[in-house]
Specification:
- By secondary structure, the protein is α+β, with helices and mostly antiparallel strands.
- The protein folds into 3 domains: 96 residues; 176 residues, Rossmann fold, CATH 3.40.50.150; 85 residues, no CATH class.
- The chain is built from 10 helices and 19 strands.
- The strands form 2 sheets. Strands 1, 2, 3, 4, 5, 6, 7, 15, 16, 17, 18 and 19 form a 12-stranded antiparallel beta sheet that branches.
- Strand 9, helix 4 and strand 10 form a beta-alpha-beta unit.
- The protein starts with a strand and ends with a helix.
- 34% of the residues are buried.
- The mean pLDDT is 90.
- This is tRNA (guanine-N(7)-)-methyltransferase.
- It is an enzyme of class 2 (transferase).
- It comes from Sulfurospirillum halorespirans DSM 13726.
């Protein structure tokens, strides 16, 4: 991740603008961490400053607000470094590559799919596309299909976005998002194929796997009749787990293949084949049409809260409900009336990581687009109850 090390930083007077970046405020936690709110070309980024044991300051982007396109974070860090007159001890930032940054038209945020995505043609989805070989091949072969690629590894995303531009591939949309949550934002019966090729097996943490009973249920909802959900894996344990999950359905059309040949292979498959490992395919065909669902709304706060009371009562705290949780992790103070709370919440097996921003009593999420999934609504209700318990 882009970062630099320095011994000193000149204090900024907030708000201030340096070149293309605006720095809005600075916030501090009792743990000694500092956050600086920055924005450039509509991208909001929190810069995180941590003091190491040797007194050196590590400056990087906070993971929660880190943009998918690394160029935006690089530009923000360059401008912050120069505005604060930092003398770098170490840096992995390459300034010449990020003098001009722009949004990729192929990269979308989850709010786009929740509220603005119009289904005009059949959709195919690839979950965890890695190097993008299969996704790019399928998109070029099927120009009439709208492809959606999901990936959380940012260098892989950058690589595919670059290839879309170089090869002039216009039928791919890419999103950096948890696939287990993503299905809830798609209309019913609009997807033709879902590819899950060589997912991380998570043998020691099976709750982190993409496949689960809930995931299969959502996949069947978004698939049209005769459409398919397809797993390809080198892991016998993942194959057996997925097959057993599908066998728990009341009715299922499941096909299994071993060492089937594809037109295009991933770098992982090339590696496994050289090692003479077996490759397994499990293909589930949807046989039923699903009922339509309403679009998901956005979570928001209506009540005014007292930040000073929250600051005084705050502690690292984990609250649990039935199938969901809220973890209040760290509080940052901007001033007497304003601050940030870093937290994670949602379903036990998949969750959101974000901040709650409190300014002059007004409460918002950061990033703002926290959508009303079932588990998020339950967690959001618990968060509001937590505020009431402190402020009332």
């Amino acid at each position: 991740m882009p970062n630099f090390h320095t011994k000193t930083l000149k204090p900024l007077r907030y708000p201030c603008t340096y070149k293309e970046t605006t720095f809005t405020y600075e916030a501090h936690s009792k743990r000694g961490n500092t956050l600086v709110m920055a924005s450039t070309q509509g991208e909001q980024v929190l810069i995180r400053i941590q003091q190491k044991e040797d007194g050196v300051l590590l400056v990087k982007g906070d993971k929660v607000t880190r943009p998918t396109q690394a160029s935006f974070l690089q530009k923000v860090l360059i401008d912050f470094r120069d505005a604060s007159e930092a003398e770098e001890i170490f840096s992995n930032i390459e300034p010449k590559k990020f003098l001009h940054v722009k949004h990729s038209p192929y990269l979308k945020e989850i709010e786009f799919f929740a509220n603005h995505f119009d289904v005009e043609r059949e959709i195919w989805i690839e979950i965890g596309f890695g190097s993008g070989r299969h996704l790019l091949h399928q998109a070029k072969k099927n120009p009439h299909i709208q492809f959606i690629g999901l990936e959380i590894h940012k260098p892989s995303i950058e690589q595919v976005l670059k290839q879309c531009e170089l090869q002039n591939i216009e039928n791919i949309l890419v999103i950096d998002y948890d696939a287990r949550l993503f299905m809830e934002f798609l209309p019913s019966n609009v997807v033709g194929r879902i590819f899950v090729h060589f997912p991380v097996p998570w043998d020691k943490k099976p709750h982190r796997r993409v496949f689960s009973a809930a995931f299969i249920e959502e996949a069947l909802r978004v698939l049209h009749v005769n459409a398919t959900l397809e797993l390809r894996t080198d892991s016998p344990l993942y194959f057996e787990f997925t097959f057993s999950q599908m066998m728990q359905l009341s009715k299922a059309d499941v096909h299994v293949k071993k060492n089937a040949e594809l037109e295009i292979t991933s770098k992982y498959e090339d590696r496994w084949r050289k090692m003479e490992k077996d490759i397994y395919d499990v293909i589930l065909t949807n046989e039923m049409e699903a009922a339509p669902i309403p679009k998901l709304g956005r979570l928001h706060f209506d009540d005014v809260v007292d930040f000073a009371k929250i600051r005084d009562a705050f502690k690292d705290e984990l609250l649990r409900g039935e199938g969901f949780f809220v973890h209040f992790e760290e509080l940052f103070e901007i001033d007497e009336k304003s601050g940030l709370i870093r937290l994670s919440f949602g379903a036990n097996e998949r969750n959101e990581r974000c901040f709650i921003q409190i300014q002059e009593g007004q409460v918002t999420y950061l990033p703002e687009t926290i959508l009303a999934t079932k588990s998020n609504v339950a967690a959001h209700t618990l968060i509001k109850e937590w505020f009431h318990g402190i402020c009332d």
